[in-house]
TrEMBL record, chain A:
Cellular component, GO, one term: Golgi membrane
Region spans: Disordered: 411-462
Taxonomic lineage: Eukaryota, Viridiplantae, Streptophyta, Embryophyta, Tracheophyta
Name recorded for this polypeptide: Glycosyltransferases
UniProt cross-references to Pfam families, sorted A to Z: Glyco_transf_43
TrEMBL record, chain B:
Family: Belongs to the glycosyltransferase 47 family.
GO biological process, one term: glucuronoxylan biosynthetic process
UniProt superkingdom: Eukaryota
Membrane topology: Single-pass type II membrane protein
Protein name: Exostosin GT47 domain-containing protein
Exostosin GT47 domain segment(s): 45-340
UniProt keyword annotation of Protein transport present: no
Signal peptide range: 1-21
GO molecular function, one term: glucuronoxylan glucuronosyltransferase activity
Family annotation (PANTHER family): BETA-1,4-XYLOSYLTRANSFERASE IRX10-RELATED, EXOSTOSIN HEPARAN SULFATE GLYCOSYLTRANSFERASE -RELATED
Pfam family, one: Exostosin_GT47
Length: 462, 412
């Protein structure tokens, strides 16, 4: 309670140091011998405290007058205060005020109490374990009361290919998926066939994975790349169909960042698709949250300035509708009897590879059957990052350099122990040959004078 | 004809089966006589007459300082407003069971917003003089069928310091009246036997604005925000909270299960909803708005205050909802809390999730069924009918009008 401030300013408790119960010292009018006596003791204690540096009165009175003080640990003596008559031992029951009715004495006493501190302050590890078990149990109960009723399996389709920083981006997706509290099946489609690197990486996740290889290599133009990715996704959907996987299909690229993944999964119940929004792409709804159209980025103003090749510096145009924005029930893809499947979805086997499929909308005959999730795409967000690199970028496999390299260059500033202390001028030109390996840098950088570039000694003999 | 009766029978059956459908959230009803009492409707069980006092006792005080509407003693003002427009109010005092005096004794605030109780005894005395001289009902029973709302620290003892409050005792003129107060401690001078304990006022809209979805997992084990040492008034410790808060700090400041500090975070309410246990230790007085906040946010209150009497103790089974820890057991608080069986904890959480409990702790504007106003009326209704002995014969006097400190006798 915040009554402290006004107490200080309006009622000086400290001035009233002779805080006493009625039983001990009723009145102060007149110099009665007891008050003089206490005054003298008070002054004496003050002086001694000043000299000694702690509240002498505490100690004296504690030892002299201790009655039924059991098990009392006090804080260490604080700074020298006014050695007032301590109320530490006022543990006698307080007499009640004048009251005509007979009242039992309260066993709770007003006055100073000791601060109880146990001698071994650390928590008992068994109790900590028990507390954590309690937390887990409470959270489980919460989930069963307020969470998803019957969670469906989530099937995530990720097209990928081996490249320099594949590990980085795939880790991001992998960790997001590992955090999903529901059953997960991760279908990774790899362009250029199945490689050991990707396989070993995926195996670390501990998720159920299906690793598919796709025979074509990832092309270097954005347009072809999108087309190939679409084909890879369709390939994955065909596998879903063959294996009759049940659940909700989501598309997660390794260039994506997801937020609100779990709320999307929670809401998915029927055989619908949804479109979370990016700042420029998304569903548009009318007031009753029904889908009425799509927001599409207008690419016309950028027609001349778009990037064609992967590592160009220009802006990359998004495709009309990102695949990752759609979620669908896997049963739509199954090769089931005709009357069970809704009529508005095209059969996957009838789709030809040459067809122009650029978004999941082409799979659907009737686009009005889509349902927007995440409050019309406002709550669930998906970010596309420009993280793709060329498929032919060079980098050491697994980022491990086993044998010493042919070219070693000493660092400019710190003299390394097994190299000459001066830096011969000739070595500066040698630096220009060693591009930093396996990065996305442009080839033009190598010719510049490496001013801010401390040549890195890339030997691993240590 | 036969078909029609069959159809109607089937319809009736369907209707009844649909209405008893399962609840979505498993909350537990506080079964037994205690729990059902929360949902009693006091209308028709009692009649309250509201005295007309001059506005210097109520409206003028509020005009002088509108902060009285938002601090934790605002219950007295809202109770007045509720009674003015409530169906239990009667304008005929002869048929009234209870009489209410609209006086705001706690509305004298310092610049920092804390109430000064020094003039309250004189204000109360002057109000009682007024009603006893203008209406015959006070003298009829010497106030035994009157009730007053005194939500200050130590109730009708009208002081914030416990020793001084005990010295004063309950105002002599209020000895026979029923007091509706927030303070409650067993065998204490300032708690009369027939008093009704109410929760302190906590702003309902402010709390409701901070709700988070209930599926966010509770990940804090014990939560507390507040002072442990009151360095302004009690620098050495030991007086404030009888040393209990300081003991909590010294013993558990390094314990990772205890999220305790003196911070004032903006996410205070949200954090309470992410905690399993919320500590509600005593301060200068045993009651605290933390109890209300804990109940509203579903956090199990851990009450560290010896002999405390909690709000509406005859209607709410606090033993089943909260955990009581004696002040001398504070060093073993972690052992106590971790040794509670899981089933007991889950049951307490289910009881707390019951919306009737949350409603009973709040003073919403406008009043809603089951809220604290109605619980107060229920409490008053439970004390009816009045015993015949409260009616004094002519000329008989029980109260001593000159008792009490000399300063109280000055006119206000």
């Amino acid at each position: 309670m915040k009554l402290s401030v006004f107490r200080l300013s309006y009622w000086n408790r400290r001035g009233n140091s002779f805080r006493s119960s009625p039983s001990l010292d009723p009145t102060f009018d007149g110099k009665s011998p007891s008050s003089v006596f206490w005054f003298v003791i008070h002054g004496l204690c003050c002086l001694i405290s000043l000299i000694l540096g702690f509240r002498f009165s505490h100690l004296v009175l504690f030892f002299l007058f201790s009655t039924s003080v059991t098990n009392l640990y006090t804080t260490p003596f604080l700074s020298a205060g006014n050695g007032g008559v301590s109320q530490l031992l006022r543990l006698k029951p307080l007499e009640t005020a004048t009251n005509s009715t007979v009242k039992k004495n309260s066993r709770v006493v007003v006055g100073r109490h000791g601060i109880r501190i146990r001698p071994w302050p650390h928590p008992n590890p068994i109790e900590v374990l028990r507390a954590h078990q309690l937390l887990v149990r409470v959270q489980k109960e919460q989930k069963s009361m307020y969470g998803v009723r019957s969670p469906k399996t989530v099937i995530v389709v990720t097209p990928t290919y081996v490249r320099t920083f594949q590990a980085l981006h795939l880790t991001g997706v992998m960790h997001s998926l590992m955090l999903v509290p529901y059953d997960l099946v991760w279908i990774v489609v790899e362009a250029g066939g199945i490689t050991n690197e990707t396989a070993s990486f995926i195996a670390k996740s501990g998720l159920k994975t299906i690793h598919l290889g796709f025979d074509q290599k990832m092309p270097n133009t954005w347009e072809d790349r999108h087309k190939l990715k679409t084909k890879m996704r369709l390939h994955a959907l065909r596998i879903v169909r063959e294996k009759k996987l049940d659940g909700i299909v989501m598309f997660a690229d390794d260039s994506n960042m997801h937020n609100e993944l779990s709320s999307v999964l929670k809401k998915e119940e029927g055989k619908r698709k949804e479109k979370p929004s990016m700042p420029i792409q998304g569903p548009s709804c009318n007031s009753s949250e029904k889908l009425v159209g799509w927001h599409i980025f207008n690419t016309q103003p950028y027609a001349k300035k778009t990037a064609v090749y992967i590592d160009e510096k220009a802006a990359v145009m998004p495709i009309k509708m990102e695949w990752s924005g759609f979620v669908l029930n896997s049963r739509l893809l199954w090769k089931e009897s005709v009357d069970e499947k809704p009529a508005w979805i095209k059969d996957l086997s009838l789709l030809d590879d040459n067809d122009e499929i650029d978004s999941p909308l082409s799979l659907v005959k009737d686009p009005s059957m889509l349902e927007p999730l995440g409050s019309c795409g406002r709550r669930v967000l998906l970010w596309w990052l420009r993280v793709e690199a060329r498929a032919d970028s060079k980098f050491p496999p697994g980022w491990i350099i086993k044998s010493p390299l042919e070219i070693t260059v000493p660092s400019k500033r710190t003299p390394w122990p097994d190299s000459s202390s001066e830096l011969p001028a000739a070595i500066k030109e040698a630096k220009s040959d060693t591009k930093p390996r396996g990065s996305n840098s442009k080839s033009s950088k190598g010719k510049q004078e490496p001013k801010a570039f401390n040549g890195v000694k890339v030997s691993t003999t240590s | 004809m036969k078909i029609r009766s069959c159809l109607s029978a089937i319809l009736l059956f369907l209707f009844f089966s649909a209405s008893s459908s399962e609840q979505n959230v498993r909350t537990e009803r506080i079964s037994g006589s205690a729990g059902d009492v929360l949902e009693d409707n006091p209308v028709g069980k009692l009649k309250v007459f509201v005295y007309e006092l001059p506005s210097k006792y109520n409206k003028k005080l509020l005009q002088k300082d509108p902060r009285c509407l938002t601090h934790m003693f605002a219950a007295e003002i809202f109770m007045h407003r509720f009674l003015l427009s409530s169906p239990v109010r009667t304008r005929n005092p002869d048929e009234a069971d209870w009489f209410y005096t609209p006086i705001y004794p706690t509305c004298d605030l310092t610049p920092t917003g804390l109430p000064l109780p020094f003039k309250s005894p004189r204000m109360m005395r002057s109000a009682i003089q007024l009603i006893s001289s203008n209406w015959p009902y006070w003298n009829r029973t010497e106030g035994a069928d009157h009730f007053f709302v005194v939500p200050h620290d130590f109730g009708a003892c009208f002081h914030y310091q416990e020793e001084k409050a005990i010295e004063r005792g309950i105002l002599p003129l209020l000895q026979r009246a029923t007091l509706v107060q927030t303070f409650g401690q067993r065998n204490h001078v300032c708690l009369d036997e027939g008093s009704i304990t109410i929760p302190p006022f906590a702003p309902p809209q402010k709390m409701q604005a901070h709700f988070i979805p209930p599926d966010i997992p509770r990940s804090i084990f014990v939560y507390f925000r507040g002072l442990f040492y009151d360095v302004n008034n009690d620098p050495e410790g030991g007086y404030y909270a009888r040393g209990a808060r300081a003991a909590v700090w010294e013993n558990f400041k390094n314990n990772p299960l205890f999220d305790i500090s003196t911070d004032h975070p903006t996410t205070y309410y949200e954090d309470m909803q992410r905690a399993i246990f919320c500590l509600c230790p005593l301060g200068w007085a045993p009651w605290s708005p933390r109890l209300v906040e804990a109940v509203v946010f579903g956090c199990i209150p851990v009450i560290i205050a010896d002999d405390i009497v909690l709000p509406f103790a005859d209607a709410i089974p606090w033993e089943e909802i909260g955990v009581f820890v004696a002040e001398k057991d504070v060093p073993e608080l972690d052992t106590i809390l971790t040794s509670i069986p899981t089933e007991v904890i889950l049951r307490k959480q289910r009881l707390l999730a019951n919306p009737s409990m949350k409603r009973a702790m709040l003073f919403p504007q406008p009043a809603q069924p089951g809220d604290a106003f109605h619980q107060i009326l229920n409490g008053l209704a439970r004390k009816l009918p009045h015993d015949k002995s409260i009616y004094l014969k002519a000329g008989e006097k029980e109260l001593n009008w000159t008792a009490g400190p000399v300063g109280d006798l000055k006119p206000w």
